[in-house]
Amino acid sequence: MSVFRTVDLPCPACGAAVGFELVASVNADRAPALRAAILDESFQREACPACGTSFRVDPRFSLIDHGRRLWIAALPLAERRGWERAEAGANAVFERAYGAGASATIRAIGATLRRRVTFGWAALREKLLCDDLGLDDITLELTKIGLLGRVASAPIAHDTELRLQGLADERLVFAWIRAAGETPIEWLQVERSAYDEVAADAAGDWAELRAELAAGPFVDTGRLTIASTAP
């Protein structure tokens, strides 16, 4: 089941109290509407009753989707610098639920699940979108790396991310977003064949990077570029 708690948080514009139902866990099998709300970016977003400002609370919850064989620890973007520590924490949570202390049935279910850690809403949404579009998230991250070498001018900076937005006419639609506000600043479309070429070369030129990305649940180009601050 999905678990919520009700809290009042200050509006970032006027300081008035805004009521939120914050989630501790999302069961996408039993509550597909919550998964859909993550995809349409309405989940955990409220409008201030005093000034009308709409804002969203950073994610901090686990999402389980047995039908898609996926478990995600969704964390705030600000914690990405400590991704190694976050991975360890997520692995510990997963082991408590599906590890040696669980029943044989639960352990068998856990063995089928892909374990992931995401930071921020855009990264979480991208993981769900990959499943909807039938894409492998590791291959997608490798495709992004390949694109960086082909794009003449990309807004690469410490506070930008390249995130998948959808598929249109067999073209993958990406957006460079400003990470803190998760707002698009530049759009990019590429043929689906760019992804297919990387997928077909799993044991070739991409094999080493693929292994690095798959070394833990933080499957993201940030794994290769962000020096973790974990002790």
Note the topology:
Blueprint lengths: L2 E8 L6 E11 L4 H8 L5 E3 L6 E3 L4 E5 L4 E6 L7 H16 L5 H7 L3 E6 L1 H13 L3 H12 L11 E9 L2 E8 L4 E9 H9 L6 H7 L8 H4 L6
Parallel strand pairs: 2-5, 6-7
Antiparallel strand pairs: 1-2, 3-4, 5-6, 8-9, 9-10
Low-confidence parts: none
Determine Rg (CA atoms, Å): 18 Å
Strand arrangement within the widest β-sheet reads: 1-2-5-6-7
Beta-strand residue percentage: 25-35%
Cα-to-Cα separation, first versus last residue: 34 Å
Structural class: alpha+beta
What does the overall shape look like? globular
Say how many strands there are. 10
What is the succession of H and E elements?
Answer: EEHEEEEHHEHHEEEHHH
Structure description:
Strand 5 and strand 6 (70-75) form a beta hairpin. The protein is of the alpha+beta class and 231 residues long. The two termini are 34 Å apart. The model has no long low-confidence stretch (mean pLDDT 93). A 5-stranded mixed sheet has the order 1-2-5-6-7, with helices on both faces. A 3-stranded antiparallel sheet has the order 8-9-10. The chain has a domain at 58-218. It has 8 helices and 10 strands.
